[in-house]
Each structure stands twice: as C-alpha cells, then as structure tokens.
C-alpha cells in the first residue's frame, strides 16, 4: 500500500484515500516574519550605533504586527501556528529589541542599574505576552489588560528617536531612560485597562469631521514625526491610569476580565 494512504473496504473494493498533509498559510506568516525582521533589524542598527534607525525599525514592526491578524481574518487563514509565531515575533520586536536598544543607547552608563532596568522591561514583556495568550477568551476585547507590548516598545523607541533627533545623549538621558523603561515594563503587567480600539470598524460610516481630523493627524506626524509620535504614545501610556482612577472615583469595577462576553449589553469592566 502506498505510503500516506488509508484503505477502505466496501463491496469487495479497495479504495485508497490519500491523507492530506498539513501546511502553513503563507500570507499572514509572511507579514509576521516581516515584523520579526524589523525587530531584528532594530537590534543590528543599535549594535552599529544607528539608534534613529533602530527606533524606526520598532515602529515598522508595530505597523506589521497590527496587520498580520487582520490579514489572517480577511483571508480566513487563522491558525494556531500563526498565533504562536506572532507571540514569538512580538517577544523579539517589543520585548528583547527595545530592552537591548535602550541599554546600548543610555542604560549601559548606569552600570548594573542599567541592565536591571533593561531586564525588568524584557521580563515584563514576556509576562505580558504569556498572560495575554492565556486570558484571550476571558478579557473584554475592547480593553487590554495592562499596557500592550507594542505601545510599551513605542514609548522607549519614541524617546530614543526624539532625543537622537535633538542630539541629546549620555548622562542627560540615562536616568530618564531608566525611569521610562521601568514604567513601561511594570505598566505592561498591571491590571489597568487600556482601550484596544478593536470595536472600531473600518466598514462603518463616520462623520466628515473624522476624516478631517485624520488628515490633520497625518499632517502633524509628517511635520515632526519624532515629537508627535512620542506625545501620542505618552498620552496612550497614561490613559489607562486615567480610566482606572475615573472608574474608581465612580465606584465602578476596574477589572477587564469579562464574565459574560456573549451578552450584547456587557460592560466588560467588572
């Protein structure tokens, strides 16, 4: 009997059924690999002292990371392999790469305090990704549980990008980088809710003013990318605490763990 086939007997006949070999979907995994390459590129640029390009690589990885899941859903090519590949890519691009770039750029001068801050960030990114994977089915999809790792990486990369553009380096940025790395890392593992924007649909109609605001945002980024990007991610990086404090003041529950996500009127924050 040929290898890779099964036999079925019926009415004196032998029917050979060829087993279908499992394969991998190319398109979404190609995007994920591109995001992984962007993170690796950032590390290489940092090793060569090109910290501006290293920061750009992190932002490119962010864009690609936001695309692979959407591509998989649009083409109906989701897979467990793709999910695991995405997590490993995120760990490199938004965990190891920002930590190493920050250390090479400024934290090295702080001695052991520098590598401790870099390690805390890297470890918190790993914990954040692991918790995200196991809590996917119980967390309200409108919110992230803690600061998402791409936004945390953008805080570090945005600060490096702006300071490099301004020509500021050395001891003047070492301790601010230390504080920012700890803040970004520890915020990733908190239970503070951060808006995920997943309930926004590109297929819905929006007011004309919304299109105007988008155009103004693109123009502002093009005028001064370093400053605008850093301000955007700093605002997002503190938005979760603002939501948390506001809900605490209102006497509302602040956890993003949803106990009845199938209910159409579910608030999600219990």
Question: How would you describe the overall organization of this protein?
Answer:
- The protein is mainly α.
- It has a single domain (26-249), classed as Four Helix Bundle (Hemerythrin (Met), subunit A).
- Helix content is 64%, strand content 7%.
- It has helices spanning 26-47, 51-74, 80-105, 112-134, 149-166, 171-188, 208-223, 225-249, and strands at residues 5-10, 13-18, 143-145, 193-195.
- The strands form 2 sheets. The chain has a two-stranded antiparallel sheet with strand order 1-2.
- α1 (26-47) packs antiparallel against α2 (51-74) and α1 (26-47) runs parallel beside α3.
- It starts with a strand and ends in a 21-residue tail after the last helix.
- The model is unreliable at 259-270 (pLDDT under 50).
CATH evolutionary superfamily: CDP-alcohol phosphotransferase transmembrane (TM) domain
**Mean of residue pLDDT values:** 83
- Global morphology: globular
Query: What would you say the CATH architecture is?
Result: Up-down Bundle
- Reading the helices and strands in chain order gives EEHHHHEHHEHH
List unreliable stretches of 5+ residues: 259-270
Distance N to C terminus: 59 Å
Main beta sheet strand tally, sense and closure:
2 strands, antiparallel
CATH topology: Four Helix Bundle (Hemerythrin (Met), subunit A)
- Could you tell me the strand content as a percent range? 5-15%
Which features would summarize this protein structure in a list?
Four Helix Bundle (Hemerythrin (Met), subunit A); 7% strand; two-stranded antiparallel ribbon; disordered C terminus; 270 residues; 64% helix
């Amino acid at each position: 009997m040929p290898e890779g086939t099964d036999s079925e007997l019926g009415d004196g006949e032998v029917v050979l059924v060829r087993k279908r070999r499992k394969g991998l979907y190319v398109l979404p995994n190609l995007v994920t690999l591109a995001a992984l390459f962007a993170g690796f590129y950032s590390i290489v640029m940092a090793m060569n002292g090109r910290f501006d390009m290293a920061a750009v690589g992190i932002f490119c990885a962010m864009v690609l990371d936001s695309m692979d899941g959407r591509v998989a859903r649009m083409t109906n090519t989701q897979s467990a392999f793709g999910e695991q590949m995405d997590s490993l890519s995120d760990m490199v691009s938004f965990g190891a790469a920002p930590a190493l770039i920050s250390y090479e750029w400024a934290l090295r001068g702080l001695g052991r305090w520098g590598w401790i801050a870099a390690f805390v960030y890297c470890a918190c990114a790993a914990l954040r990704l692991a918790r995200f994977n196991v809590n996917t089915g119980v967390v309200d999809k409108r919110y992230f549980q803690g600061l998402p790792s791409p936004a945390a990486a953008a805080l570090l990369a945005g600060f490096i990008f702006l300071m490099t553009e301004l020509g500021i380096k050395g001891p003047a940025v070492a301790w601010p980088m230390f504080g920012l790395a700890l803040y970004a890392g520890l915020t990733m593992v908190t239970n503070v809710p951060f808006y995920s924007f997943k309930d926004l649909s590109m297929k819905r109609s929006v007011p004309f003013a919304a299109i105007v605001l988008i155009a103004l945002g693109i123009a502002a980024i093009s005028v001064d990318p370093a400053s605008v990007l850093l301000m955007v991610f700093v605002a997002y990086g503190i938005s979760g605490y603002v939501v948390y404090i506001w809900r605490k003041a209102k006497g509302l529950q602040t956890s993003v763990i949803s106990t009845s996500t199938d209910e159409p009127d579910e608030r999600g924050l219990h």
